[in-house]
Every structure is written in structure tokens, then in C-alpha cells.
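Recall the central idea of this unit: under ordinary conditions, the amino acid sequence of a chain determines the structure it adopts. In this exercise we apply that idea directly, starting from the sequence alone.
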Amino acid sequence: MNLISGIDITAGALNAQRTRLDIVAQNIANAQTTRTPNGGPYQREVVSFETELVRRVGSGGPSLQSVKIASIAPDRTPGQQVYNPQHPDAGPDGLVTMPNVNLSYEMVDLITASRAYEANLTVVKNARQMAMKALEIGK
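Accordingly, the structure predicted from this sequence is:
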């Protein structure tokens, strides 16, 4: 197997997980934002991945699969209604629509994304070490 194509595939996975980490951080930061520039409460965003077939030109070997971001879409589930008549975004009935961000879900997402990122970094590190050993053997 070509180490360079393996590292390229891992780099795609690293970019995808970095984007996921950024979106999770944005969701956590806006967990209490009841008014956005669009007028309503913040809507949680969700990252969707898809596999991407990477063809090795002229190798005749099997094609490889990488991961990429398919979409970053808002989660349309409604936010919780909280009674707080003193809040500036409260309706006439005193209810405030909160963002649909669940901090427990976001923390789980954060942990899984960071572990996936770390695993991909380990793959790159090991591929680099193998390449260095191969160069040492070739001397």
C-alpha cells in the first residue's frame, strides 16, 4: 500500500473531524442564544459525513475510501419553552423559546470527535515512522 495515499485519506478524515469539532463548539457557545440575526433562537447545527471513493490512477489495485463532509444542516427540532416574563425575548405569554442545544449530546459529540481526531493523528504518526524506517533500511 502506498503510504502517501493513506496519509492523504487520513488528512481528509482529520479535516472532517476538525469541522465537526468547530460545529460542536459553536453549538455549545450558543446554547443560551435566544435571538440570532435571523430573529429566532439559535438552531443547533449537525454535521453529516459521507464516504468518498478515491481511485488510484494506473495502480490496478483496489480503490480506497475516504470521509468528507456531506452537509452542515440546522437541526429543526423545536427548542424548549421556558417561562421567564422578564426576559427581553419573552412572548406575551411570558414564554421564551430556548435554543435546541442539549449540552449532554454536545459533550458526547465533542468527545467522540476528539477521539476520532486523535486516532487519525496516530495513523499519520505511524505511517511517518514506517516511512522513516523504510528509508533507513534503504541506506
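Strands lie at 45-54, 64-74, 81-83, 95-97.
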